[in-house]
Amino acid sequence: MKESEFGRGYATCLLMFTWHAPRLKRKDPHFGDEVMLWANASSDHLYELVVGGKVPRRDGKIARDMAAHALNCGHGYGSPRPVYSEEDALRWIGIAAALLVNVGNPQSIEEAMEIDRKLGLRPEQGIWGCSEPMQPW
């Protein structure tokens, strides 16, 4: 099995995604590039989001939908490319945080990985995975 770049799992990926929240900062409420740049880094952790195992079906669907939007914001293609707002990003962070509460509210990468193992998953922190919350710019 190839080693994960940005992390693999459910709680593991969601937690690392939320840890990018302090770096979400906008200067102009009508200009979406800052949100896109933030999503480019934070959504990397959602590439290997796994919702199998014992993850509740409803939560898995919510997680997949949220991840699809965050990934599209940070890495999406198409013309015209959708513009996402800071409110969108804050909503995704809130969704991820609520999903984490539903599985035990991990506060560390070790706790998240242990939750994933209990969910029947094989989590990885990844080569570029976060080990703690990001500091604001």
Write the layout of secondary structure elements.
Elements: H1 11-18, H2 33-42, H3 57-75, H4 86-102, H5 109-118
Helix pairs in contact: 1-4, 1-5, 2-3, 3-4
Comma- or semicolon-separated keywords:
globular, 137 residues, single chain, 0% strand, mainly alpha, 5 helices
What does this entry look like structurally?
The chain has one domain (11-118). 47% of the residues lie in helices and 0% in strands. It is built from five helices and no strands. It has helices spanning 11-18, 33-42, 57-75, 86-102, 109-118.
Instruction: Count all strands and give the number.
Output: 0
Molecular shape:
globular
Helix proportion of residues, in percent?
40-55%
Largest sheet: none
Radius of gyration: 14 Å
Number of helices: 5
How widely separated are the two ends? 35 Å
Low-pLDDT runs: none
Query: What's the mean pLDDT score?
Result: 92
The domain count comes to 1
**Pattern of helices and strands:** HHHHH
Beta-strand fraction estimate: under 5%
- Helix/strand/pairing class, anyone? mainly alpha
Provide a concise account of the structure shown:
This protein is mainly alpha-helical. It has five helices and no strands.
